[in-house]
Amino acid sequence: MIYARISGTGSFLPGDPVSNEDLVKRGIDTSDEWVTSRTGIRARHLASADVGSSDLALIAAERAIEAASCEPEDIDLIIVATSTPDFIFPSTAALLQSKLGIRNGSAAFDVQAVCSGFVYALTIAEKFIRSGSNKRALVVGAEVFSRILDWSDRGTCVLFGDGAGAVVLEASEMPGIRTTALHADGSHHPILCVPGGVAAGQVIGDPFLRMDGQAVFKFAVKVLGDVANEVLEAAGATVESLDWLIPHQANIRIIQSTARRLGVPMEKVITTVERHGNTSAASIPLALDLAVRDGRIRPGHRVIIEGVGGGFTWGAALIDF
Ligand code: UT7
User: Fold this and answer.
1) Burial class for 298, CB neighbours closer than 10 Å (0-12, 13-18, 19+)
2) For the residues 36-52, what does the mean pLDDT come to?
3) What is the 3-state secondary structure (H, E, C) of 4-43?
4) Closest Cα to atom 44, ligand 1: which residue?
5) 248 is catalytic
6) Does the predicted TM-score (pTM) go above 0.85?
7) Mean pLDDT confidence for 154-177
8) Is there a smaller number of Cβ atoms within 10 Å at the N or the C end of the chain?
9) What domains can be seen in the chain, in order of their start residue?
10) What's the rounded Cα separation, in Å, for the pair 168 and 255?
């Protein structure tokens, strides 16, 4: 039996942290008290204008490849989850392959599932590896959400940030990713969207992120609870067998409500939202990398990662390290 195991993690946040107070100084009509109490976010990182998702992805990927003790040429599949690609095309994954100097002709493509993107990308990579067609995949979540924020909309601009996280996923005889579940319900698309595009050299529609925060909140708590139970049940595992829960890092109140619903104590929940806000597809691998590097996640540990985002999309994976 071939399994897929995570053999290395990496992440990257651009520039210095920008605090809530810094946003107030930049003229945003908000306060540290409002943002912290409603979301748990204390800071975010914002990429400079000449930096794209592929640049953030490159540094996170190099760190993951080093941690996996392999070479870029050993990677035979690249999947990048992003909703803020450098270009309409080529894909950010193709750009990343070029920046990594990989010339082995392996497949590279992007996945667009917004904040569930990393769970989608990891699930796809796991299928390729378990089928025997690929041996070592690089799976990345990379975003420059600051590019799609309306800085005059205080209800959204304080919530998001830029960053990237990556893992190397390898074929192994030992179980790694145990079970996965992916879902979507496109009928909810209006509650979180960037309803614009480009045609004839013009922006058509609205190129900024729009959100009904309360509707998203309710939806997120429900599906994050359900999908975590789904992957546990599929694995025949109990919630008590979990060492760590890594939910999408959007809002500490969503994370706390989800943990409460699942019966997972907060001591077992990895949270990084306070330091980088909502980085969409990058948020889960950012939190995962931090917890691997600071020694909380250790070999033998059992982890659930789970995401929810625009579309609506949601998903989870039960992973043994
Ligand atoms: O990947 C999923 C991404 N999305 C999310 O995670 C968002 C989920 N939703 C939420 O976390 C919450 O709905 C928010 C944090 C976005 C908003 O919290 P809320 O308790 O739902 O606030 P609200 O939108 O109902 O607004 C309450 C008040 C309003 O003022 P009034 O009308 O009561 O006077 C807003 O104008 O808060 C005001 N407000 C702000 N005040 C200071 C909205 N944004 C801000 C702000 N600073 N940044």
Assistant:
1) exposed
2) 98
3) EEEEEEEEECCCCCEEHHHHHHCCCCCCHHHHHHHHCCCE
4) 155
5) yes
6) yes
7) 98
8) N
9) 3-173 (3.40.47.10), 178-320 (3.40.47.10)
10) 26
- At residue 32, the pLDDT reads 98
Beta strands 136-144 and 77-81, pairing class: parallel
Question: For residue 10, what are the β-bridge partners?
Answer: 166
- SS3 category, 55: helix
Q: Which residues are near ligand 1 (CB < 6 Å)?
A: 30, 34-35, 38-39, 115, 154-155, 158, 211, 213-214, 216-217, 220, 248, 250-251, 254, 278, 309
Residue with tokens 């748990």: 40
* CA nearest ligand 1 atom 36, residue: 155
Ligand 1 atom showing the smallest separation from residue 157 Cα: 48
Residue with tokens 């996280």: 165
Q: Ligand 1: which residue has its CA nearest to atom 43?
A: 155
Concatenated DSSP letters of 178-244 = EEEEEEE-GGGGGGEE--EEEETTEEEE--S-EE-HHHHHHHHHHHHHHHHHHHHHHHT--GGG-SE
Q: How confident is the model at residue 137 (pLDDT cuts 50, 70, 90)?
A: very high
- Residue 278 a catalytic site member: yes
Which of 58, 47, 138 has the alpha carbon at shortest distance from 95?
58
For 89-117, the pLDDT digits (tens) are 999 999 999 999 999 999 999 999 999 99
